[in-house]
Amino acid sequence: MDIDGDVSHGIASTHSIFERIPLDVLYRIIYFVSVQDIIRLRQVSKFLQEITEARSIWSNAYRTTSLARRLGPFPHQSTATLKDLLFQSAKIACNWAPNIPRPTAKHPIEVKQGDCCHSLLLGRWLMFVDESRTQIRCFDLDSADRDCASSIVYNNNGTPISDFHSVSTTSVGGHDLALVIVRERPGTSMDRIKILKVLGHEGPLISFEPAQTYSISWKSTSLRSVIGPRLLVISGEQLVICPKEVLYVDLATYQTYKMTFTVPVEHYIPTHVSFISCATHLLVLRSFLTTDNTSHTIIDVFPLASANMAPKPGSLDPSHSGEWPSYFNGTHLLCDPSLHSQIDDPRISFVFVSSRNIGKRFATAFYGVAHLTLSNKMILLETQELFRQVQGQHFFICPCLNGSTRAICISSPSFAARLFLGEGLEHAISAITLTVDESSAVTLSTSAVKLPGMSPCAAVIGFDGNHGRIVWRTSTPHGSILEAVDFA
């Protein structure tokens, strides 16, 4: 066991029982202590506070803790960074499932009528398109000045922005990458998709750097994207009908791939397509409904460049394919084993929402966790049901790669209920913690949460479980109120 040599230097002598324990024994004991208990130990004495400054302690705690957290530890991360991230995660855990969620702060922000297309980046930067539709403005939710005005972070030089959103990921080397995807309609038959790299996202000011622009004929009215350590997928709305309305972008070069599917997309019209972007593979799940109301999903797995190879943009062919007798309405990556050193199981784990067939009709949709294994050109899929989906329910999950994440599930009152039963109704909101352990067993914890001042007409527009922050929007006669609630 490596122990930082400078930790014991200069530690004052005390009469505590801890000082009488040999340092190597004390370190070994602390290595088996939870993050929350390490924090408590640091409050006992100056001796223990100095002992627990060793990077090896925080690096080990980061690897082994069950707390939801960002990927890590990485060699370039300092002891202070690891400590701050774990302190923040421990604070959120005290106010999150399975404990009783208690918001710690609230930040109301008034925006003008016409401001639209909101996006929350890395839990800190709340961005939106202003009423001119040509500029992206931004609030820093971590700023001590809660009344500060938004700043312009991007000007599109008069060309209207029809849609935008932000995505972020952790690269294979452990560095954060944040992007903004902008869709323009310049008045021609071709839309423009711009990828902007976000600089300075660790604060206090951010800026955008153009990375690449693509021209594409796009019929979809909305924009979505899925990002992984190596590949970015940009597509239209969830009912993907035209395969040409998908961009597969290499994050090293921003060149695009052409995809070859085992069952050509022209043979079937998928009613939903989901993408899961891992460090080593891209999973494409195409769900279909047949004329007799049965459903199935074709899963194609495309290998990406390995960590010791330079990416080679061009054409991608699937290495594995398979079918599953269920309909997938959406997926979220939960554990990428190639980036998680603590899990030896090679299975890729993801959260999904699915529907089953009962006779000639669909059963109630449900949320679950799937474990996917690649074996000899075949795909093995094990699923575990978590809970049923009810009408008007929305699920927000924090992007995750290391097997532990936070989510919220919101059941909104219907329009009819609000009309006939009045405004006293509230959203039913659950705070969720999902954890996959070393054997890929899934633990689910839920707790009811109340968001102060959230009206039945409000809509959640952003959630980040790593920062413990929820943002929602409420319409007013003069515009909108954006409200952010913290749990850290």
List keywords for this structure.
488 residues, mainly beta, Methylamine Dehydrogenase, Chain H, four-stranded antiparallel beta sheet, disordered N terminus
General description of the model:
With 488 residues, the chain is mostly beta strands. The protein has two domains: 23-94, no CATH class; 105-486, Methylamine Dehydrogenase, Chain H. Helices cover 11% and strands 43% of the residues. It contains six helices and 31 strands. The chain has helices at 23-30, 35-42, 46-51, 55-64, 79-94, 415-421; strands at residues 105-112, 116-121, 125-129, 135-140, 151-155, 161-170, 176-184, 191-199, 207-216, 224-227, 231-235, 246-250, 258-259, 272-277, 281-289, 295-303, 315-316, 320-324, 327-335, 348-355, 357-358, 361-362, 366-375, 378-388, 393-397, 404-411, 428-436, 442-449, 459-464, 469-476, 479-486. Strand 30 and strand 31 (479-486) form a beta hairpin. It starts with 22 loop residues before the first helix and ends with a strand.
